[in-house]
């Protein structure tokens, strides 16, 4: 009987080590899932903010065409304050004349607003672009 006990000595230690390693792997996996979920939430909120920043740029460009000079300009706007803080909005505009029989000649403007924050490759980099066509036709 004594000989049988010596052979079984240490078997519980091996099981305990395997269980500790298994629990550590499960903990590491859960930690990774939590951090990935947090990053996804941050990026999702950032993309909505980028869309609103790009929309603000489009609205500013349309207002500049209607109320302002009536000519295309391509400025860069740095937004500060509110939820769009830190975004850079680049506006591009091209125009062309269009003639329609019975209506006359009017201008058609192609506007593009691109809002970005961060640098490409960063985890927090977000970018959205909005394109819009505007005309001064009656």
Description:
The chain has 138 residues and is of the alpha+beta class. It has one domain. It has 2 helices and 4 strands, in the order ααββββ. It has helices at residues 2-8, 11-66; strands at residues 76-78, 88-100, 104-117, 126-135. It is rod-shaped, with a radius of gyration of 30 Å. The mean pLDDT is 80.
Instruction: Say how many strands there are.
Output: 4
Structural class: alpha+beta
State the helix count: 2
Number of domains: 1
Mean pLDDT: 80
- How would you sum up the major sheet? 4 strands, antiparallel
Radius of gyration: 30 Å
Relative helix content: 40-55%
What overall form do the CA principal axes indicate?
rod-shaped
Query: Can you list the strand order of the major beta sheet?
Result: 1-2-3-4
Q: Oligomeric state of the chains?
A: single chain
Poorly predicted segments = none
Q: Terminal Cα separation, in Å?
A: 106 Å
What is the helix/strand order? Answer: HHEEEE
Percent of residues in β-strands:
25-35%
